[in-house]
Design brief:
The complex is a heterodimer of chains A (about 110) and B (about 110). Chain A is mainly beta and about 110 residues long. Chain A is built from no helices and 11 strands. Chain B has no helices and 11 strands. In chain B, the strands form 2 sheets. In chain B, strands 2, 4, 5, 6, 9, 10 and 11 form a 7-stranded mixed beta sheet that branches. The chains are: A mainly beta (about 110), B mainly beta (about 110). The interface of A and B includes residues 32, 42, 101 and 102 of A.
Amino acid sequence: QKEVEQNSGPLSVPEGAIASLNCTYSDRGSQSFFWYRQYSGKSPELIMFIYSNGDKEDGRFTAQLNKASQYVSLLIRDSQPSDSATYLCAVPTGGFKTIFGAGTRLFVKA
Amino acid sequence: KAGVTQTPRYLIKTRGQQVTLSCSPISGHRSVSWYQQTPGQGLQFLFEYFSETQRNKGNFPGRFSGRQFSNSRSEMNVSTLELGDSALYLCASSDRQMNTGELFFGEGSRLTVL
């Protein structure tokens, strides 16, 4: 079992819709969870992080965490074509080693 | 504040050669991590350096090595290159003292092995 798993997609949504990206992790001791966005040919950039169970909202982005189910998700409301990218779920382990999921490719159709 | 700088951005090598990649972290960041990114495997952790010491290592063969200097700049070296080493090598710096876990990535060094 991989430590951090994501559906590789591609996930295709129409402009204005909600995109839902999911991630599961294996280490029950994990405390923090990060979502990075990577445009084609570019390096990853942080868009959200979450530490506590529940929801965290930042503009059109909402991160959801359920530690009991070892599940973290990212919702993108009012999706725009500029949101088309690969979204990486990342989980730091002890000792500053961060494990990344394989990423979910999102396409937002205009 | 300047970002993470990686050099060279692109390079082509042949099998059996070796390569050295360089990474300058954000000023004040003392932690540098290296990742290999390929289409099939995604982002794979290579190693992390902090205060000139390797603190963590991923599951890569000994051909992959690195070091960190007193100014926090880091280099990674791959010896006896194989075709499968073709990848984007990403360096990320972080502020361990802030302990947020956020990684700041450089633009990467794209290595092609022929």
